[in-house]
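Sample intake sheet
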Amino acid sequence: MNNLSKKNITIVIACTIIISISLAYFLYISYFEYETIADDGSEKILSELWNLSFDAPKSKFAVDNEVLYLLNSDNMLYEISIADGELLNTHILNSHVQKDLKPVGIDVLDGTVAINYKNSAIVYNTKSNELICDYVITHDMKTYLNNDVYLHENILILSARKPYRMLGVNYLTSEIEWEKSNDKDLSYSLMKFDDRYLFRNDGEVDYFEYDPLTGELIAEYLRSSKEIIKAKDIVSSIPKYESTGNDEFDNWLISSMLGLFNRTLNNDIYCQLGNEIYFFGRDTELDWKIRVKEDIYLSENYGNYLFLTFHDGIQLLDLESQSIVWEADFDVIGFPMIIADKKIAIIATEDGEVRALSLSDL
């Protein structure tokens, strides 16, 4: 009887273990239902078109008329041919700015360059090598400019903090043509879509479009509804706006308001969290998620691909096959700059190199 009891106990214990293992496996499969591990591979070739090396690595880019304008942290401005990497011109701007100021934003229009610093901005003509405007918003260093800076005809468009306001400065006369402020004590986000200039109070979802020459209000784009979207423990919402009749502009309005979520040029939604990518497609239902080798620093979309940058490298994720199809050990700074019509990606690295990669194989 005792032997039988021991046998029964053994059977019960064995069954319990089997059930526990089965349950754990079921929960694992359920939890990782959409998850795959991105494959490492080199299925695509991103050939290097050109490679230039500069002394100061932290660079900002702008593109104008087939020319890449590269501005480094030492206020050296380089003009580079996008096609072949030929160095066309070099401009030393230190004599035009206050000592030790680092540039935070750049825009170019027909060879005229606008650069903003913490509390000032300059406009420089690269064709005549002349400083056109040196606009100091204030000598109080507690007041400073945001990163955004734009040129429209003869107007330099800036946004400032403390107090929060937007400015349209005639850079030919250094006179303020218009100024906007709000009574909510909120900073502005300044954005551009083609030749349209829009502003939004930070933390809010409504857009206001202004005439860049006069500062007059052209249109308001107010959120009409929203959808909730969730990735892991991150909850956000996708705003909906009344259609303007311009699908590209309508999609851009939504894309600019997704927070930690992003939208590809194909209007697919994804979220980058740690070393994971959550992919939703065009609705709020999770389609799949993947884990990559380490925490992702930044991501940038090109077609059906995402460039993923890490502290010691860069990878290309194919959103259709959900796999890594190219990688390199470039120590990338910031976002790759995608020049879609040229099928070129510009990448700046920590060691001061600037590389142009061909995207024609994608």
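Comment: Confidence is low (pLDDT under 50) at residues 21-36. The longest strand covers residues 144-152.
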